[in-house]
Amino acid sequence: MATKIASPRNLKVELERLLTICRLNPSRQILAREMRSLSGRILGDPKTAPGFVIGPAGLEEPASKITLQPNTLYYLGASSSPTTVILTSVSDDKVTYMDVYGGNKGVMERWIAADLLTKGTKTALKTYGRYMDSETKRSLTSLLKGGRGKTEKLDDWKRVKWLVAPAPGLEGEDLWRAAEEYGNVGGLEKDGVNHYEIEGFKKDVEKVLNDRRFKVVKK
Protein backbone atom coordinates (compact mmCIF):
# COMPACT_ATOMS: atom_id res chain seq x y z
CA MET A 1 0.00 0.00 0.00
CA ALA A 2 1.29 3.48 -0.84
CA THR A 3 2.62 5.65 1.96
CA LYS A 4 0.92 8.98 2.53
CA ILE A 5 2.89 12.10 1.70
CA ALA A 6 4.26 13.24 5.04
CA SER A 7 6.58 16.13 4.21
CA PRO A 8 6.82 19.19 1.94
CA ARG A 9 9.80 17.54 0.21
CA ASN A 10 7.74 14.50 -0.77
CA LEU A 11 4.93 16.77 -1.93
CA LYS A 12 7.45 18.66 -4.10
CA VAL A 13 8.55 15.38 -5.69
CA GLU A 14 4.95 14.47 -6.48
CA LEU A 15 4.29 17.89 -7.99
CA GLU A 16 7.42 17.62 -10.16
CA ARG A 17 6.20 14.24 -11.34
CA LEU A 18 2.81 15.76 -12.21
CA LEU A 19 4.42 18.61 -14.15
CA THR A 20 6.64 16.21 -16.10
CA ILE A 21 3.70 14.08 -17.19
CA CYS A 22 1.67 17.16 -18.16
CA ARG A 23 4.52 18.49 -20.28
CA LEU A 24 4.71 15.18 -22.11
CA ASN A 25 0.93 14.86 -22.45
CA PRO A 26 -0.59 18.37 -22.32
CA SER A 27 -4.29 17.60 -22.21
CA ARG A 28 -7.05 18.49 -19.76
CA GLN A 29 -8.07 14.86 -19.43
CA ILE A 30 -4.62 13.74 -18.35
CA LEU A 31 -4.19 16.76 -16.07
CA ALA A 32 -7.47 15.95 -14.31
CA ARG A 33 -6.53 12.28 -14.01
CA GLU A 34 -3.16 13.11 -12.51
CA MET A 35 -4.64 15.62 -10.10
CA ARG A 36 -6.97 12.89 -8.85
CA SER A 37 -3.97 10.60 -8.61
CA LEU A 38 -2.05 13.14 -6.56
CA SER A 39 -5.01 13.62 -4.24
CA GLY A 40 -5.19 9.89 -3.72
CA ARG A 41 -1.44 9.77 -3.11
CA ILE A 42 -1.75 12.40 -0.39
CA LEU A 43 -4.46 10.29 1.22
CA GLY A 44 -2.49 7.06 0.85
CA ASP A 45 -4.49 5.50 -1.99
CA PRO A 46 -2.71 2.25 -3.00
CA LYS A 47 -3.51 2.84 -6.69
CA THR A 48 -1.11 5.80 -6.73
CA ALA A 49 2.03 3.91 -5.73
CA PRO A 50 5.20 5.32 -7.34
CA GLY A 51 6.13 3.80 -10.67
CA PHE A 52 2.71 3.71 -12.32
CA VAL A 53 2.26 5.00 -15.88
CA ILE A 54 -0.66 6.30 -17.89
CA GLY A 55 -2.33 3.65 -20.02
CA PRO A 56 -5.69 3.13 -21.78
CA ALA A 57 -7.35 2.33 -18.47
CA GLY A 58 -5.69 5.10 -16.47
CA LEU A 59 -2.76 4.47 -14.16
CA GLU A 60 -1.07 1.13 -14.88
CA GLU A 61 1.98 -0.63 -13.55
CA PRO A 62 4.69 -0.65 -16.26
CA ALA A 63 5.84 -3.99 -17.65
CA SER A 64 9.04 -2.59 -19.15
CA LYS A 65 12.26 -4.57 -18.77
CA ILE A 66 14.34 -2.08 -20.72
CA THR A 67 17.94 -1.48 -19.67
CA LEU A 68 18.73 2.18 -18.99
CA GLN A 69 22.39 2.54 -19.90
CA PRO A 70 24.39 5.79 -20.03
CA ASN A 71 25.95 6.91 -23.33
CA THR A 72 23.55 4.74 -25.29
CA LEU A 73 21.17 5.47 -28.16
CA TYR A 74 17.38 5.08 -27.73
CA TYR A 75 14.14 6.41 -29.15
CA LEU A 76 11.91 8.41 -26.79
CA GLY A 77 8.17 9.03 -26.96
CA ALA A 78 4.75 7.49 -27.37
CA SER A 79 4.05 9.06 -30.78
CA SER A 80 4.53 7.51 -34.22
CA SER A 81 7.71 9.62 -34.65
CA PRO A 82 9.79 9.15 -31.49
CA THR A 83 12.80 11.37 -30.76
CA THR A 84 16.31 9.95 -31.17
CA VAL A 85 18.17 10.46 -27.89
CA ILE A 86 21.30 9.41 -26.05
CA LEU A 87 21.07 8.90 -22.30
CA THR A 88 23.86 10.92 -20.70
CA SER A 89 23.38 9.76 -17.11
CA VAL A 90 21.24 7.30 -15.17
CA SER A 91 20.59 7.30 -11.42
CA ASP A 92 18.15 5.46 -9.17
CA ASP A 93 15.45 8.07 -9.73
CA LYS A 94 16.46 10.28 -12.68
CA VAL A 95 17.84 10.06 -16.21
CA THR A 96 19.31 12.83 -18.34
CA TYR A 97 19.32 12.71 -22.10
CA MET A 98 20.30 14.61 -25.25
CA ASP A 99 18.25 14.95 -28.43
CA VAL A 100 20.82 14.01 -31.08
CA TYR A 101 19.23 16.11 -33.83
CA GLY A 102 18.13 19.20 -31.91
CA GLY A 103 20.93 19.12 -29.35
CA ASN A 104 18.39 19.80 -26.59
CA LYS A 105 19.02 18.27 -23.18
CA GLY A 106 16.47 17.06 -20.68
CA VAL A 107 15.91 15.30 -17.38
CA MET A 108 13.13 12.88 -16.50
CA GLU A 109 12.12 10.60 -13.67
CA ARG A 110 13.52 7.14 -14.26
CA TRP A 111 10.23 5.26 -14.33
CA ILE A 112 8.66 7.72 -16.78
CA ALA A 113 11.74 7.51 -18.98
CA ALA A 114 11.66 3.70 -18.94
CA ASP A 115 8.08 3.74 -20.18
CA LEU A 116 8.64 6.32 -22.93
CA LEU A 117 11.95 4.80 -24.05
CA THR A 118 10.32 1.39 -24.32
CA LYS A 119 7.45 2.74 -26.41
CA GLY A 120 9.69 4.89 -28.61
CA THR A 121 12.30 2.20 -29.22
CA LYS A 122 9.67 -0.40 -30.10
CA THR A 123 8.06 2.03 -32.54
CA ALA A 124 11.42 2.86 -34.14
CA LEU A 125 12.33 -0.79 -34.61
CA LYS A 126 8.96 -1.52 -36.16
CA THR A 127 9.01 1.53 -38.44
CA TYR A 128 12.69 1.99 -39.30
CA GLY A 129 14.25 -1.30 -38.27
CA ARG A 130 14.88 -2.54 -41.81
CA TYR A 131 16.83 0.65 -42.58
CA MET A 132 19.01 0.58 -39.45
CA ASP A 133 22.56 -0.66 -39.46
CA SER A 134 22.80 -4.11 -37.90
CA GLU A 135 24.78 -2.94 -34.85
CA THR A 136 22.21 -0.30 -33.88
CA LYS A 137 19.33 -2.71 -34.39
CA ARG A 138 21.00 -5.38 -32.25
CA SER A 139 21.69 -2.84 -29.52
CA LEU A 140 18.10 -1.58 -29.35
CA THR A 141 16.68 -5.11 -29.39
CA SER A 142 19.01 -6.17 -26.58
CA LEU A 143 18.13 -3.15 -24.44
CA LEU A 144 14.41 -3.85 -24.73
CA LYS A 145 15.02 -7.38 -23.44
CA GLY A 146 16.99 -6.13 -20.43
CA GLY A 147 20.40 -6.76 -21.96
CA ARG A 148 23.35 -4.51 -22.74
CA GLY A 149 23.54 -2.09 -25.64
CA LYS A 150 26.19 -0.34 -27.70
CA THR A 151 27.81 2.62 -25.93
CA GLU A 152 28.31 5.84 -27.86
CA LYS A 153 30.86 8.64 -27.73
CA LEU A 154 28.94 11.88 -27.39
CA ASP A 155 31.59 13.65 -29.44
CA ASP A 156 30.67 11.44 -32.41
CA TRP A 157 27.17 12.92 -32.38
CA LYS A 158 28.21 16.56 -32.60
CA ARG A 159 26.94 18.38 -35.68
CA VAL A 160 29.85 19.53 -37.86
CA LYS A 161 30.30 21.19 -41.24
CA TRP A 162 33.33 20.41 -43.40
CA LEU A 163 34.35 21.94 -46.72
CA VAL A 164 35.77 19.46 -49.23
CA ALA A 165 36.96 19.65 -52.82
CA PRO A 166 37.69 17.10 -55.54
CA ALA A 167 41.03 15.36 -55.21
CA PRO A 168 43.76 16.29 -57.71
CA GLY A 169 42.84 15.01 -61.15
CA LEU A 170 39.10 15.03 -60.39
CA GLU A 171 38.50 18.79 -60.45
CA GLY A 172 36.13 18.54 -63.42
CA GLU A 173 34.02 15.75 -61.91
CA ASP A 174 30.54 16.24 -60.41
CA LEU A 175 30.90 14.69 -56.94
CA TRP A 176 27.67 15.97 -55.39
CA ARG A 177 26.11 12.52 -55.03
CA ALA A 178 29.37 11.18 -53.61
CA ALA A 179 29.44 13.97 -51.01
CA GLU A 180 25.86 13.13 -49.98
CA GLU A 181 27.12 9.78 -48.68
CA TYR A 182 28.47 11.67 -45.65
CA GLY A 183 25.74 14.19 -44.82
CA ASN A 184 23.70 17.12 -46.10
CA VAL A 185 25.45 18.94 -48.92
CA GLY A 186 25.72 22.54 -50.06
CA GLY A 187 27.78 23.64 -53.05
CA LEU A 188 30.00 26.57 -53.98
CA GLU A 189 32.60 27.32 -56.61
CA LYS A 190 36.16 28.45 -55.93
CA ASP A 191 38.63 29.25 -58.69
CA GLY A 192 36.42 27.40 -61.16
CA VAL A 193 36.34 24.21 -59.06
CA ASN A 194 33.23 22.84 -57.34
CA HIS A 195 33.51 22.62 -53.56
CA TYR A 196 31.07 20.87 -51.22
CA GLU A 197 29.97 21.77 -47.70
CA ILE A 198 29.06 18.57 -45.89
CA GLU A 199 26.99 18.96 -42.71
CA GLY A 200 26.07 16.10 -40.39
CA PHE A 201 27.14 14.06 -37.39
CA LYS A 202 30.89 14.03 -36.86
CA LYS A 203 31.00 10.22 -36.97
CA ASP A 204 29.53 10.29 -40.48
CA VAL A 205 31.22 13.35 -41.96
CA GLU A 206 34.73 12.31 -40.89
CA LYS A 207 34.44 9.17 -43.04
CA VAL A 208 35.16 11.41 -46.03
CA LEU A 209 38.80 11.37 -44.88
CA ASN A 210 39.04 7.84 -46.27
CA ASP A 211 37.48 8.74 -49.61
CA ARG A 212 40.18 9.27 -52.24
CA ARG A 213 37.80 11.30 -54.39
CA PHE A 214 37.99 14.21 -51.95
CA LYS A 215 40.43 16.43 -50.14
CA VAL A 216 39.36 18.27 -46.98
CA VAL A 217 39.74 22.03 -47.30
CA LYS A 218 38.33 23.14 -43.96
CA LYS A 219 36.93 21.43 -40.85
What oligomeric assembly is this protein in?
single chain
Approximately what portion of the residues adopt beta-strand conformation?
A: 25-35%
The chain-level structural class is: alpha+beta
When the domains are counted, the total is 3
Number of DSSP-assigned strands: 10
By DSSP (H or I, 4+ residues per run), the number of helices equals 6
Using only C-alpha atoms, the radius of gyration works out to: 23 Å
Distance between the termini: 59 Å
Strand order of the largest sheet: 3-4-5-6
- Name the overall outline: elongated
Helix content: 25-40%
Biggest sheet record: 4 strands, antiparallel
Low-confidence stretches: 1-7, 43-51
Description:
The protein is α+β, with helices and mostly antiparallel strands and 219 residues long. It folds into three domains: 8-60; 72-154, no CATH class; 158-218, Alpha-Beta Plaits. The chain is 32% helix and 27% strand. It has helices at 8-24, 28-43, 110-128, 134-144, 176-179, 202-205, and strands at 53-55, 58-60, 72-76, 83-90, 94-99, 105-109, 159-166, 184-190, 193-201, 214-218. Strand 3 (72-76) and strand 4 form a beta hairpin. Helix 1 (8-24) packs antiparallel against helix 2 (28-43) and helix 3 crosses helix 4 (134-144). The model is unreliable at 1-7 and 43-51 (pLDDT under 50).
